[in-house]
Hints:
The protein is an all-alpha fold.
Amino acid sequence: MAVPAVERRAATGDKAAVRWTPRAGARVGSIDFVRGVVMILMAIDHVRVYSGLPAGGPSPGIFFTRWITHFVAPGFVFLAGTAAFLHGRKLGDLAALSKFLFVRGAWLVLLELTVIRFAWTFNFDYANYLLAGVIWMIGCCMMLMAAAVHVPLATMAAFGVGIIALHNVSDLASGPLNALFGESGPNWLLKILYFGGAVQLGSTGPPLLVLFVIVPWIGVMMAGYAFGRVMEMPAERRRAISLQLGIALTVLFVVLRAFNVYGDPRPWSGSPWLLRFLNTTKYPASLSFLLMTLGPMFILLAYAERWRGKLVDIVTTFGRVPMFYYLLHVPVIHLAACVVSLVREGRVNPWLFGNHPMAPPAIPEGYTWSLGLLYVVFAICVIVLYFPCRWFARVRATRRSAWLSYI
């Protein structure tokens, strides 16, 4: 594919070349479809939060209910990077893209700490609980990407892949690192960047519970951004590349996990061997976790290039408005849990107004749902969410408003 001269200068590091040739083009339907699958799977785990069922066990049914949702964050973050690249191509200006990413990232962080925090808990206990979840992490990564988009694309790809592949080296040096940190452990910045945990905001401020850290997710977003170049290629070419990448990453996961030497801080052993083999580390996301999830995502992306039909259109609708869906799905699921509690107990259980999802109070005796009820509530919530998402997708497609691009 021919590359305009002004873009070639940018790719080789010419600081004077700050503009791209705009390529408006049609939306890439396969991206929207895969993002839609991610959005739907996300709802399973967030219904589980209010069901009282544990994350990942003890039964195979509960394990795979959690495991299938592991594909959400990697797909969400990687395709956010790809969408940023394609949005920049439409803008035709790296400076405009940089401004957009920084403002949108700051906006997402604000939403996480205010609106989304309330949606999870239905309480205003901000003085005792703030959660740095996936939207916080995406917002922080976008603000970092505002600077990163100015480096050559090949450099961006190398840094992204390098962060993904090498960050688990810290596991091999856990002893020296612990000695370096001392009894106090990592400081607040290191917790936000990689280690996670509670960060005290000032001497009297609330604790910020860091669930999603920046590394390696910034690497995933950088790799997704570089992958945007592939999504500009003809459909069959990008399909072939996606399929090859998907198979390669999936095979690499199996091989790396089988050797059990590097890639995850929790080596697997014993039985049930399949569950232990698949039980990779999400917080922070290990190399094995990312290979296990991104590989199948690429394979799905490849096959989605050729899929058509009503069901594909429905799923794609969710993928066209991912942030709108996210902002809506948490309160919808929370309200659904309140309705279930009212039906089952004759009241709305106060447990549903506790500080979920990272630090919930003890689950009341007899509250926990069956796995079947979890999936019934999940299906109802997704159906309910489809109609406002379809409306908002039409609004975004027909109206030209700057603020719509931030939701």
